[in-house]
Amino acid sequence: MIDSVFGTEEKTVELYDAHTKAIISSAVKGINGTVFAYGQTSSGKTYTMRGSPGEPGIVPLSVLDVFANIQKAEDREFLLRVSYMEIYNEEINDLLAPENRKLQVHENIERGIFVAGLREEIVSCPEQVLQLLDFGEAHRHVGETNMNVYSSRSHTIFRMVIESRDRSQDDALQTCDAVRVSVLNLVDLAGSERVAKTGAEGARLKEGSHINKSLMTLGTVINKLSEGIESQGGHVPYRDSKLTRILQPALGGNARTVIICNVTPAMVHVDETKGTLQFASRAIRVTNCAQVNEIVTDAALLKRQKREIEELRKKLQENHSEHLEEEVLSLRNDMLKIELERERMALELQNKAERERRMKEQIENLSTMVLNSAVDDRHTDKSMKKVCKFENVGFSQQLQVV
């Protein structure tokens, strides 16, 4: 589903406020952003991006908003660099330095994907930027076709590199060596063409062929990304055209991206309109992973690590104090348990001693009783022996008489 639909009666500023303003705001905060217009030739892409003296387009509105956001960010200082390039017949030309032609795309760890030799101008106000835009626009390749008197024969990419760092001088908060760097791309694509409608021939035919080829590659890239091919480890043909190679970070990468799809209401172009809408339906399924881009120097990294260590030390001390209190309370509980156990054992020993004393008394009493009983038994034995003796004597005497 397309996010929004704007009719011919609505102003470009309404489109800008609805979908582009947030991209500009986040770019000033260090997040890459890209806005580009896509559609068939003569559908109003250049007008949407550049506008007119009475109705500014996406590009001048964005430039003004960048500086407005910078004015609000009083805690940071900024450095802005701008460049302007066109891709004409699959060759990259520098619109701010027309002598720089056939530039090459490179990639490294530090800069990512970049165009080598492209001039960058440091700017300090919106008027300066708009002058550079006008200068570059004057060197862009345009031409007349049956469908458009002033037809763009190249893709253009106006780029702003926004760097910022903290103004703070407080040692506890200073991060001035950590620099945020974002890239804002404002892209006006040439329109797809059908030779039968444009009547192109010669140079115009060659231009149209290169335009269609690069737009076809863009469509293929969008289609692959919408199907999740890249996340599955599949190949996405970014390198098949200069356009997709330069815009690679904005297509499923580290950037916030808005695609403006321009269509014409004329019934004669219904097939082209259908193709544009199909492109839009696929593009909306592409997911980017935008994040703040921060370059940290060794000094800033060391400073940040020291600050983090100090914060961790404070937390550790707080946690250690709480831990000590818990240990003291635990020790007190243990001591109380030991004291209660000692009292219990003392009482038990006392009871045991009392029991032993009573048993000893009982044993002594029993011993006395046994001794007395033994004496009485000895007296009894002697008396019985005497009786028996007398009786025996008498018995003997009786035997003699018989």
UniProtKB/TrEMBL annotation:
<dbReference type="GO" id="GO:0007018">
    <property type="term" value="P:microtubule-based movement"/>
</dbReference>
<comment type="similarity">
    <text>Belongs to the TRAFAC class myosin-kinesin ATPase superfamily. Kinesin family. KIN-7 subfamily.</text>
</comment>
<keyword id="KW-0175">Coiled coil</keyword>
<dbReference type="GO" id="GO:0000278">
    <property type="term" value="P:mitotic cell cycle"/>
</dbReference>
<dbReference type="GO" id="GO:0042327">
    <property type="term" value="P:positive regulation of phosphorylation"/>
</dbReference>
<dbReference type="InterPro" id="IPR027640">
    <property type="entry name" value="Kinesin-like_fam"/>
</dbReference>
<dbReference type="GO" id="GO:0000779">
    <property type="term" value="C:condensed chromosome, centromeric region"/>
</dbReference>
<dbReference type="InterPro" id="IPR001752">
    <property type="entry name" value="Kinesin_motor_dom"/>
</dbReference>
<feature type="binding site">
    <location>
        <begin position="39"/>
        <end position="46"/>
    </location>
    <ligand>
        <name>ATP</name>
    </ligand>
</feature>
<dbReference type="GO" id="GO:0033044">
    <property type="term" value="P:regulation of chromosome organization"/>
</dbReference>
<dbReference type="GO" id="GO:0140694">
    <property type="term" value="P:membraneless organelle assembly"/>
</dbReference>
<keyword id="KW-0547">Nucleotide-binding</keyword>
<dbReference type="GO" id="GO:0005874">
    <property type="term" value="C:microtubule"/>
</dbReference>
<keyword id="KW-0067">ATP-binding</keyword>
<dbReference type="GO" id="GO:0008608">
    <property type="term" value="P:attachment of spindle microtubules to kinetochore"/>
</dbReference>
<keyword id="KW-0505">Motor protein</keyword>
<dbReference type="GO" id="GO:0005524">
    <property type="term" value="F:ATP binding"/>
</dbReference>
<dbReference type="GO" id="GO:0043515">
    <property type="term" value="F:kinetochore binding"/>
</dbReference>
<dbReference type="GO" id="GO:0000226">
    <property type="term" value="P:microtubule cytoskeleton organization"/>
</dbReference>
<dbReference type="InterPro" id="IPR036961">
    <property type="entry name" value="Kinesin_motor_dom_sf"/>
</dbReference>
<dbReference type="GO" id="GO:0008017">
    <property type="term" value="F:microtubule binding"/>
</dbReference>
<feature type="domain" description="Kinesin motor">
    <location>
        <begin position="1"/>
        <end position="286"/>
    </location>
</feature>
<dbReference type="InterPro" id="IPR027417">
    <property type="entry name" value="P-loop_NTPase"/>
</dbReference>
<protein>
    <recommendedName>
        <fullName>Kinesin-like protein</fullName>
    </recommendedName>
</protein>
<feature type="coiled-coil region">
    <location>
        <begin position="295"/>
        <end position="369"/>
    </location>
</feature>
<dbReference type="GO" id="GO:0003777">
    <property type="term" value="F:microtubule motor activity"/>
</dbReference>
<keyword id="KW-0493">Microtubule</keyword>
<dbReference type="Pfam" id="PF00225">
    <property type="entry name" value="Kinesin"/>
</dbReference>
<dbReference type="InterPro" id="IPR019821">
    <property type="entry name" value="Kinesin_motor_CS"/>
</dbReference>
<dbReference type="GO" id="GO:1901987">
    <property type="term" value="P:regulation of cell cycle phase transition"/>
</dbReference>
